[in-house]
Design a protein that fits this description.
The protein is mostly helical and 316 residues long. It has 16 helices and no strands.
Length: 316
């Protein structure tokens, strides 16, 4: 069937992974801005604990008929996704609470590079020259927007807390890549259930909260006003939908593709912040934004003109 005959409904369905990935990135960007505002008045630990409740309603959407498919190795992968998702949430809050936001962004959003390597080695996902170029352009774009001091100069080259801050950012990137790779492995084994993964992330987080609160040596700032409650509830809802969109995207797209599109969160966050603070938008940042959006544009356009189904498992 010709591409023109398939557009727009069939073509949109074929690109649902790209659409969900971009929507998840937009929601993550919006949620990050809200969290930055909230954590000025509420302890990050409380924000993390509240966000975990966003995953619990997914129990109503679990595919209980998948029960007979699961093997012991699937359970390990599901727990790994839950732990990785929790790591992204906790380490992300810690990493972006440090002064060197530019350096942190450059490291955290190096996730596509890790996904490319692990996806090829562990999942044997196809990856061509054009994908390598997109990963390179994406990473350069993140560098141009975040302007890390170790490349662009600044008052401080390092992190607050020294090497520990660097390790937190690296660990966040590794957790994000592990989350994507383990999810795609479940897709290959035909045991992927986004709702179950959301619930697992929530339960894992709830179980880990006593440890997180124990090591948190910052004085707790509680929710005291109606405005704070409103922002916190909104952040919880957006957080839940952003993770749900990401898991839905991984159901139909490669880990490397989803991770590339997810970096558009950097672009959206930057322009959100520029709009809200009236900060000038530099040409370097605009160039970086253009490089980052090449990946979603490329995959969206190629999806429109794709003749065959992109995912053979859907033909079964």
């Amino acid at each position: 069937m010709a591409p023109s005959d398939r557009f727009p409904l069939s073509s949109l369905y074929d690109q649902r992974g790209i659409i969900f990935a971009f929507l998840g990135a937009a929601l993550f960007a919006f949620n990050s801005l809200m969290v930055n505002v909230i954590t000025e008045r509420i302890s990050p630990t409380i924000v993390i604990f509240a966000c975990l409740f966003a995953y619990l309603p997914s129990v109503a959407f679990i595919r209980w008929d998948y029960g007979e498919r699961y093997r012991s190795t699937d359970a390990i992968l599901i727990v790994l996704v839950g732990l990785s998702g929790l790591g992204v949430l906790v380490l992300g809050v810690i990493a972006f609470s440090m002064p060197q936001i530019g350096s942190t962004s450059a490291i955290v959003f190096s996730r596509p590079v890790i996904c490319v390597v692990l996806g090829k080695v562990l999942l044997d996902e196809p990856f061509g020259i054009s994908d390598v170029v997109l990963v390179f352009l994406n990473f350069v774009g993140v560098i141009l927007i975040s302007e890390p001091p170790f490349l662009f100069g600044g008052d401080s080259v390092g992190y607050e807390g020294g090497i520990s801050g660097l390790l937190v950012a690296v660990a966040c990137a590794v957790c994000g890549a592990s989350q994507f790779i383990a999810s795609r492995k479940l897709v290959q084994r035909d045991t992927y259930d986004p709702a179950l993964l959301l619930l697992t992330t929530g339960i894992t987080g709830m179980s880990a909260m006593p440890v997180i609160m124990l090591v948190d040596d910052v004085d707790v700032q509680y929710v005291t006003t109606a405005a704070d409650w409103g922002l916190l509830v909104l952040a919880v809802v957006v957080c839940g939908f952003s993770f749900a969109c990401t898991y839905l995207a991984l159901h139909s797209e490669k880990a490397s593709v989803v991770s590339l599109i997810a970096t558009t969160e950097v672009v959206i966050s930057y322009f959100f912040q520029a709009f809200l603070t009236d900060d000038p938008v530099g040409w370097v940042s605009i160039a970086g934004a253009c490089l980052i959006i090449t990946a979603p544009l490329k995959y969206a356009i190629s999806g429109i003109f794709r003749e065959e189904p992109s995912h053979p498992e859907e033909e079964q």
